[in-house]
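Query structure, 692 tokens:
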């Protein structure tokens, strides 16, 4: 009998013997869920896993969220659950929480080592021996450094008020307390290493009432994070929000809205959607939804979505306040399927060059791109710039289908391979819509996964130029595991390889948090700003298939043409306008006040784009920002004046016409796009490229 089946049969015994007060059925189902998850991870994960380590990490993850930050528990609680009291390891006897790059002491246990050494509540610990707190991310990390063999000592560096102190603190036994050890393989005999025991015990340690299913979710998230940065757990609440953009639709009323000072403002009624059909307009303010007042009550975005989303065919009644109307207007909207578009913008960037910006790879992306291509060709497009900057990915098959539009068949687009999954190659199969004409693909450090599949295939087959900065380096393939309670885990099962054999995935041995920081460390190292700061992995050198150009593996796709990150047009004042939402708020309010006048003066976007000036409007923006508490700084404003004017014009275009028009204005600041237009006009970079 397997370990997993055995644990199900024995779960009830542990429930009764521990006297757990919650429902037996709930605990039993939670244990079954964990058993199923571990079974699938052991069977499917891309690399070999240690089942004992998986279990320990679940328990550590659960402990990180409980009120155990000292590590110590009272003997009365330990005795109640009939747990073994260990006497080998001790800690210094403090309760703490993370405070920036320090541990804030929230309590000192009487008669412990910290108490005797003179630590006080409010002290901020910055170093434990030679270990800096800023390298620790979980309570279990800190406890592991604070704890050790009994009667040993540790050196603590701390700040008290403005003074810096160094104290030697002994790890001593504390009367009526014992240090609890969780999921520790080095001390397995004294550690709690069975989640059937850990769950009910930890439930009693939470300061607030909490479901055991939530406790287990903390453990699952931590366990998956220790495997790799992309294996994830998805709760019931998150499943819909995560899947909707990829599926390409959701069911609702079809409005884009923004909350301004507790007022729900309609930014746009989605064309063809149910709200537009009944007459909802941009600028309308939602006051009542199904007879519930939603104006001025502090409702959040999630609260609005909950009220407007629903099953297809159901109805929602809204009352709106419209400018120039004295009375509230009543509308009954029948919910319907609302498309989520992945093409943010498509327009002619120059007389013969089309531009398409793709924000993700959804089920509908290729159809959207085909539609955009037909439209652009009618305007004279010969060459294409595909913008995948900040595109985090999506469906694998959508990426393959998109590459199929650029390459003749049959050609390998990408291959996947994992421990339990043999190599699988994905190839082009059909005559593509975009096999002719020159191609540029824009990427940056936030282009990931499916974006890297596309840019890697285009580069390896010498089909086009990759322009920008090195991509993120996400080359792990996840498969969803549906768990018994309806939640889901996405487990890494394989890795992506480009046609030349390059593995897209960057290293992640340093842990998930360090892995995510790597993108920002490119700024520090200079890689984001200088091509000569890029460190190529000479051990992973490959050749493109047609022209035999040298390309590199080791994580991400390196562009053919490097475009440095431009920070010259930014400033603290500009950043504050954006981060505080002031620019967006002002533009929407300003457009709503001027809408009729603007629509009369600028009946088309082209007329607006050519003639609209922000000189006067930006002065109103400055005044509005001051009213919102942002002090005007002339020097900081001048440093970013051009950027502020262009961004303001883009926001106004979005609110007056359509959100896609935002990019047509803001792309004046898109350095990679401007460089690509130059490359296409010059043509020299494409001299040795052949049709693939």
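Result returned for the query:
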């Amino acid at each position: 009998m397997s370990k997993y089946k055995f644990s199900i049969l024995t779960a009830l015994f542990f429930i009764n013997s521990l006297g757990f007060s919650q429902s037996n059925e709930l605990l039993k189902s939670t244990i079954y869920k964990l058993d199923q998850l571990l079974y699938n991870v052991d069977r499917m994960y891309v690399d070999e896993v240690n089942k004992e380590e998986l279990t320990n990490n679940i328990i550590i993850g659960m402990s990180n969220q409980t009120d155990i930050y000292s590590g110590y528990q009272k003997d009365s609680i330990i005795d109640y659950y009939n747990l073994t009291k260990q006497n080998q390891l001790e800690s210094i006897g403090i309760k703490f929480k993370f405070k920036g790059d320090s541990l804030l002491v929230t309590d000192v246990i009487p008669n412990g080592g910290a108490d005797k050494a003179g630590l006080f509540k409010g002290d901020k610990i910055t170093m434990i021996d030679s270990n800096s707190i800023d390298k620790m991310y979980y309570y279990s990390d800190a406890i592991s450094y604070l704890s050790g063999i009994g009667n040993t000592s540790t050196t603590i560096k701390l700040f008290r008020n403005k003074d810096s102190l160094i104290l030697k603190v002994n790890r001593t036994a504390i009367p009526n307390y014992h240090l609890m050890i969780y999921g520790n393989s080095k001390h397995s005999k004294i550690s709690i290493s069975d989640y059937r025991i850990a769950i009910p015990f930890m439930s009693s340690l939470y300061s607030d009432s909490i479901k055991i299913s939530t406790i287990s979710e903390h453990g699952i998230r931590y366990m998956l994070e220790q495997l790799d940065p992309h294996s994830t757990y998805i709760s019931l609440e998150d499943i819909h929000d995560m899947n909707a953009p990829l599926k390409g639709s959701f069911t609702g009323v079809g409005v884009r809205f923004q909350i301004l000072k507790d007022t729900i403002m309609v930014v746009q009624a989605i064309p063809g959607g149910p709200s537009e059909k009944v007459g909802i307009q941009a600028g309308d303010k939602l006051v009542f939804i199904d007879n519930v007042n939603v104006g001025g009550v502090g409702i959040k975005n999630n609260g609005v979505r909950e009220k407007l989303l629903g099953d297809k065919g159901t109805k929602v009644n809204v009352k709106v306040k419209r400018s120039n109307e004295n009375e509230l207007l009543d509308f009954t909207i029948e919910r319907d399927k609302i498309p989520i578009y992945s093409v943010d913008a498509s327009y002619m960037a120059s007389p013969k060059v089309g531009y398409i910006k793709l924000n993700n790879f959804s089920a509908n992306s290729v159809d959207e791109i085909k539609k955009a291509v037909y439209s652009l060709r009618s305007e004279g497009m010969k060459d294409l710039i595909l913008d995948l900057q900040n595109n985090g990915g999506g469906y694998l098959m959508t990426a393959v289908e998109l590459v199929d539009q650029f390459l003749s068949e049959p050609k390998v687009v990408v291959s996947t391979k994992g421990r339990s999954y043999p190599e699988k190659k994905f190839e082009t199969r059909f005559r593509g819509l975009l096999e002719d004409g020159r191609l540029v693909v824009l990427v940056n450090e936030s282009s990931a996964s499916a974006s890297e599949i596309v840019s890697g295939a285009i580069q390896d087959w010498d089909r086009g130029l990759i322009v920008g900065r090195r991509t993120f380096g996400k080359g792990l393939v996840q498969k969803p595991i549906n768990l018994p309670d309806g939640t889901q885990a996405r487990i890494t099962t394989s890795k992506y390889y480009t046609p030349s054999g390059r593995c897209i995935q960057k290293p992640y041995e340093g842990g998930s948090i360090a892995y995510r920081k790597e993108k920002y460390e490119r700024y520090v190292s200079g890689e984001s700003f200088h091509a000569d700061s890029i460190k190529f992995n000479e051990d992973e050198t490959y050749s493109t298939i047609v022209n035999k150009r040298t390309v590199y593996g080791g994580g991400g796709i390196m562009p053919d043409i490097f475009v440095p990150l431009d920070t010259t047009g930014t400033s603290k004042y500009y950043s504050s306008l954006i981060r505080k939402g002031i620019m967006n708020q002002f533009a929407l309010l300003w457009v709503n006040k001027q809408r009729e006048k603007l629509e009369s003066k600028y009946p088309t976007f082209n007329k607006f784009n050519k003639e609209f000036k922000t000189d006067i409007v930006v002065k109103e923006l400055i005044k509005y920002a001051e009213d919102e508490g942002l002090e005007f700084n002339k020097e900081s404003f001048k440093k970013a004046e051009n950027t502020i004017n262009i961004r303001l014009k883009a926001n106004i275009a979005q609110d007056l016409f359509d959100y896609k028009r935002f990019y047509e204005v803001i792309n004046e600041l898109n350095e990679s796009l401007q460089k690509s237009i130059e490359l296409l006009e010059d043509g020299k970079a494409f001299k040795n490229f052949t049709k693939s």
